Amino acid sequence: MEPPSTNKKLLHIAAIETSCDETAIAIIEALYSGHSFRVLSNIVLSQVAMHAQWGGVVPNLAKREHEKNLPFLLLKSVQESNFSISKSQFSISKFRFHRESSAKPGQIPNSKTQILNSILEKNEELQNQFEKHLLHIPRPNIDLIAVTQGPGLEPALWVGVNFARALSMLWDIPLIGINHMEGHIASALLKQSGKISNFQFPISKKNKKISNYKRYMLKAIRYPALALLVSGGHTELVLIKKPLQYKIIGETRDDAAGEAFDKVARILGLSYPGGPQVSAEAQQSEVRLPKVVGSRTSDCFSLPRPMIHSKDFDFSFSGLKTAVLYMVRDLEKQGANIKKLRPAICKEFENAVVDVLVSKTIRAAKQYKIKTILLGGGVAANVSLQKNLAVAIKKDLPNSKFYMPNSNLTGDNALMIAAATIGHGKQAKKTAWKTLKPDANMRF
User: What are the angstrom distances between the C-alpha of 360 and each of 181, 367, 389?
Assistant: First the structure.
């Protein structure tokens, strides 16, 4: 990245994430001279409770919530970052805004107002909130806006992208779209640090609170690297030959691993989101399930490990989910108490998923002579996957390093989008708001 002026050493990045059912905004203060930064604000507002009643994410409901919440999160983030907007200019209370600005309608040129209307015309609620609470506040000390461009749910992505476009145009700030999956890669490389190497951030006498903000560094790694990205919508192996050079070498042909967890949870009567529920049940299991399955009696049985021996690095979990469905059906015909057997079923299902993920990752790492392995995505929070992958790497690839995100960064968040932006800063453009569009099926 290059500073806008030779006198400036810091870059303030505001990142926006709305790919699914989390509305998130983060503001970081990064060094132009390296990969160190501190987090001025990092807010994630989850919609899980709302979508749980439907058993999964409803795209149009997610869109509506993003429209309602983005203005609130931006104002809250700016306030937490101690930028130039004073508390007297707005108040925040239970997601309802009451503007107290003294700005006059004539301060915004008609030409910009017309452009704003055209950008936000398909997001009526967002347009109303934007005009009511953001239109006349002073531009905060932000140098660059980053937004998740894809992949994700298209209605949700449009809200975040249009919000970013409107801010970029109104405040004349460069804008850049970021691949959501690259954000998950960046999350695995984040290391919290008490010190910033090669540079001490200046602390304003008027703003001593800033010295308490969390500081991070993006870890320097050896290449080639391999990322295993596992979430509700994606399961893929990404080869990284050098910084910012990505190639998908394996991906799911049907259900992603996280999606399979959710579907199995529904089969077993567990609530949404299914991943944590299945894992919690699995931890209570004694593994063995002594029951009659069909016409075959066995002290224990196992689920299939789909494609574990295939020559490629692709995945398939739809059949595994179906196998659980048939297993439950057969056990119920035998009069079994599924609730009592649920921990063992969950354990076997989790083992099957983890075995496939680990096996494919290790084999790919050997073939491509990988020096660094990264784990990212929502399913990266699965303790069994973390432990088994770490053990396999230590055993089969003792010279390779393994990195995974902190548990609070495995889910969707804007901090990972901000971190990923550091490597792309030169590509940001002030005119990007004119052309930037979401890409629900975005790939590396």
Answer: 19, 11, 11
